[in-house]
Design goal:
Elements lengths: L9 H8 L2 H4 L9 H16 L6 H18 L6 H27 L4 H32 L7 H31 L19 H9 L10 H18 L4 H27 L6
Helix pairs in contact: 1-3, 3-5, 4-5, 4-6, 5-9, 6-7, 6-9, 6-10, 7-10, 8-10, 9-10
Length: 272
């Protein structure tokens, strides 16, 4: 642990907690980081470093916010999805601040990274299941759609597996490299480039114009769920839009997983 000032200025915090190598990370940073996230999270970090809470404790708050997102979806109407959307932002800020607190105090550890990964994987696994139960209740109450209730909940559970698998594939690459004695893969665009001369490379380049895979994370999912809940309310048919969201996301997520798998195989990341 590093001894630093107990009442640091924002400039001191930014220099240590948000260095250029952190802000420039391609995959570890959410797309909202430069837009607003890092600009605001430093104020939360300034409060947290003045307390006795550890970086892992902040990660615990991040996990709690993520789990509460799923619980919020059980609230009927648009209020549940709206609360889930708000909690997704809270989760983002804690997710930024746990690393910033760790860098300020010099307490980065494999344990903290592990806990952080558990938080993200469980959050993205629980969201579709909670959404499926929400839709299940709505469809069960509608005699015309009751026969679609159980299949929709099953697909929601399947979607949960697909989301976790998609997130895990990147970690599998790091694990495979580590078990083969290869060095850590840098978080840069160059390290993840697939040759454009190959079919997979061309498809990957094409996918950049329609980055659907970015919609498969907790924050984006909560935004889509909120929009679907508004549409269902306008149509006067609870669960209608959310049902179709699940049915559309499942085959789309299958394609994303297949593309992710082929992209990993075709890249130089797994070369001995």
């Amino acid at each position: 642990m590093i001894e630093r000032p107990k009442n640091p200025s924002l400039d001191e915090l930014r220099a240590v907690c948000q260095p250029p190598e952190v802000r420039a990370r391609k995959n570890a940073e959410h797309w909202t980081a430069e837009l607003y996230l890092r600009h605001i999270s430093i104020y939360l970090t300034a409060v947290l470093v003045r307390t006795r809470i550890s970086a892992n404790g902040v990660t615990g708050l991040m996990i709690l916010a993520g789990w509460c997102m799923s619980l919020a979806l059980l609230i009927p109407g648009v209020w549940g999805p709206l609360l889930a959307l708000a909690l997704s932002q809270v989760q983002l800020y804690f997710d930024c601040s746990d690393g910033e607190v760790a860098r300020w105090r010099g307490t980065q550890s494999p344990r903290g990274i592990f806990i952080d990964m558990v938080g993200h994987h469980t959050t993205e696994a629980l969201l579709p299941i909670a959404l499926g139960y929400r839709v299940f209740k709505d469809l069960s109450a509608d005699n015309l759609s009751a026969d679609q209730a159980w299949p929709t909940w099953f697909l929601a559970a399947f979607l949960s597996v697909l989301l976790v698998l998609n997130r895990s594939q990147s970690l599998m690459v790091h694990a495979a490299r580590g078990m083969s004695g290869l060095g850590k893969l840098p978080d840069t665009a160059t390290a993840r480039t697939v040759p454009t001369s190959t079919l997979v490379g061309k498809l990957r380049s094409l996918a950049r114009f329609l980055p659907f895979h970015r919609l498969l994370h907790a924050v984006e999912l909560s935004l889509i769920i909120f929009g679907c809940s508004i549409l269902s309310m306008i149509l006067g048919s609870p669960g209608f839009a959310e049902k179709w969201m699940i049915w559309i996301l499942v085959p789309a997520c299958v394609l994303v997983n297949v593309g992710h798998f082929l992209s990993n195989l075709a890249s130089s990341r797994l070369n001995a």
